[in-house]
Amino acid sequence: MAGYYQKLESISSRLGMVEVLSEMLGKADKDEIKDLIYMTQGTLAPPFEGIEIGIAEKLAEEAIAIATGYSKEEVNADFRKTGDLGATAEKLIQTTKLKRMSKNKFKVKEVFEMLRKIALTSGEGSKEAKINMLASLLASSSPLEAKYIVRF
Question: Within a 10 A sphere around the Cβ of 25, how many other Cβ atoms?
């Protein structure tokens, strides 16, 4: 999915985008199509369900710091330079200060379910739980996957 999103970034024509999206959906497993469509729209559920990820920029910066071993200040400084927290995540995951966890080849469903779990986490300690779940997901993602996870 991240590879298709990267392709979409470089295309400005609507027909070109439709072609890339058609290819992505055509290669997807049947049980992933709904999740792919939601994620491409930047959502986790239909609007009437009111489910939002609930991770602000500062919390995402903290998750990136945990996942990479960089300080929150270093993450924030890079973000200020790029203006794109996804690009910052991609760069810092690539140059992580920590021993890399084995990279998982995530299925769309796994990422979608983890993002839903983050979104549905609430109550006492939920902020820390959300940060840690996102950090864990980022730490085991490829740099390109991390870019689009953070952008989501």
Answer: 14
pLDDT digits (tens, 9 = 90+) for 8-25: 999 999 999 999 999 999
CB atoms within 10 A of CB 106: 18
Rg (CA), the chain: 16
Separation CA 72–CA 111 (nearest Å): 24
Looking at the domain that runs over 2-45+55-151, which CATH code has it been given? 1.10.3260.10
Q: What phi and psi, each to the nearest 5 degrees, are found at residue 104?
A: -85, 145
Per-residue confidence band for 101, with pLDDT thresholds at 50, 70 and 90: low
Q: To 5 degrees, how large is the angle CA 95–CA 101–CA 103?
A: 85
Q: What are the extents of the domains in the chain?
A: 2-45+55-151
pTM for this one? 0.87
- Are 116 and 39 in contact by the 8 Å Cβ rule? The answer is no
Question: Which residue is associated with the tokens 């058609």?
Answer: 22
What pLDDT sits at residue 104? 61
Give the torsion through C-alpha atoms of 28, 90, 83, 114, to 10 deg. Answer: 50
